[in-house]
Amino acid sequence: MTETDLDDTDLDELVARWLPFYEDAHRHPELSGQEVRTTTRIEAELDRLGVEHFRVSETGVVGVLHNGPGETVAFRADIDGLPVTEETGLPYASTDRAELNGNEVGVMHACGHDTHFTSLLATVEHLRTHPELWAGTIVLLFQPAEETGSGAAEMIAGGVWDRAPRPSVVLGQHVMPLEIGMTALKAQNLMSLADSFTVTVRGKQAHGSQPNAAIDPIVTSASMIMKLQTIVSREVAPGAGVVVTVGSIAGGTAPNIIPDLCTFTVNIRTPDERTRESVLAALRRILQSEAEAVRASVDIGELNRFPRCYNDPEQTTVVVAALSEEFGADQVLRMPAAATGSEDVGAFADAIDVPLVYWYFGGFPPGAPTISNHSPKFGPDGPGALRTGVSAALAVLLRYRGRP
Ligand code: ZN
Ligand code: ZN
């Protein structure tokens, strides 16, 4: 028997029962902060399974699963989709649209969060129908707005840890372009810290033929953007795992007018707090100096911030043991370095100073082309991803709260 006491037939049946829920969720994704339908459906399933629950923040749902005396663990699943128009060609592909900053956009579960909350609900069903397997309390965190880095912070500000029992560990998982049945993780920093800013450069407007009368915010922005590249190449150590990306820029209306304003957005990924502080200091210093050099002014506005995602080394050992027993040790990849993606799950653990363990799981058939999360073509295999997600969640939860 594996860790979960689920044989293949039981698992296939469990996954088959949740497949329609999953396909419906995939068909109807919702943007960060707009997860109204998704939240209502999660609550309906928790009701059906007899799990008490409450809302924290507008679209955050917390379920509390009790089974006698014992310790408490928390398991988080994020629930939001992305402003991406789906191109997977799946029969249950999303054609939904939504409003984002005044524009209509396609919406898609392009990060696979639908596999996260469906796997967690299926896991809850198994735990409810097999109370003999475990004891204690499991706090289920269905978190909105992961993609904007705001959901965990909102649930914490909304008092999640005042209202839910405090756990001794926070757990969670994310589907990745890995094969079905595979998991991957590492101790310490699993992912990057991330910060995004809007930079507004103000100059002085003039006719395109009279650059001498202008302070050109476009040339200034261009110079800033090139200089920002020296943060990675000249300010931090080679291989430090720092990324500086300028992902959008806007300024001006016509070739013969020098505008008074140009804006661009910067996304910064750093491996730890100390590097983050020095990179952000370099960003501010470069932008201010470049503006000063031409008598322009610059405003730096914070867009979002992703905290650290730090896997507690001791608890990571426990999770690796559970996953290895469930899937086989060769199916549990030990990552050599932190990924440059970001996550806000760590905020739940850091807010109450308890350990976190977060891992990746696979959802793609062997030999499938590698398509990364956030791509319009990111389409995990439904049954395979759920099978892996449910087995991993159950294996780890039962390792922590198994058989009284
Ligand atoms: Zn994502
Ligand atoms: Zn994600």
SSE topology string: HHEEEEEHEHHEEEEEHEEEHEEHEHEH
Strand order of the largest sheet: 1-2-6-3-7-18-8-17
Number of domains: 2
Strand content: 25-35%
Number of helices, counting only DSSP H or I runs of 4 residues or more: 10
Overall 3D form: elongated
The CATH topology of the largest domain is given as: Aminopeptidase
Secondary-structure content class: alpha+beta
Q: What is the number of beta strands?
A: 18
Question: Could you tell me the radius of gyration in angstroms?
Answer: 23 Å
The assigned CATH architecture of the largest domain is 3-Layer(aba) Sandwich
Estimate percent helicity.
25-40%
CATH superfamily of the largest domain: Zn peptidases
* Poorly predicted sequence stretches spanning 5 or more consecutive residues: none
**How would a textbook summarize the main sheet?**
8 strands, mixed
Notes on the structure:
- The chain folds into 2 domains: about 10-185 and about 310-400, Aminopeptidase (3-Layer(aba) Sandwich), CATH 3.40.630; about 195-305, Alpha-Beta Plaits (2-Layer Sandwich).
- The radius of gyration is 23 Å and the shape is elongated.
- The model has no long low-confidence stretch (mean pLDDT about 95).
- It has helices at about 10-25, 35-50, 115-130, 150-155, 160-165, 215-235, 275-295, 315-325, 345-350, 380-400, and strands at about 50-55, 60-65, 70-80, 95-100, 105, 135-145, 170-180, 185, 190, 195-200, 205, 245-250, 255-260, 260-270, 295-305, 310, 330-335, 355-365.
- Strand 1 (about 50-55) and strand 2 form a beta hairpin.
- With about 400 residues, it is α+β, with helices and mostly antiparallel strands.
- The structure holds zinc ion (2 copies).
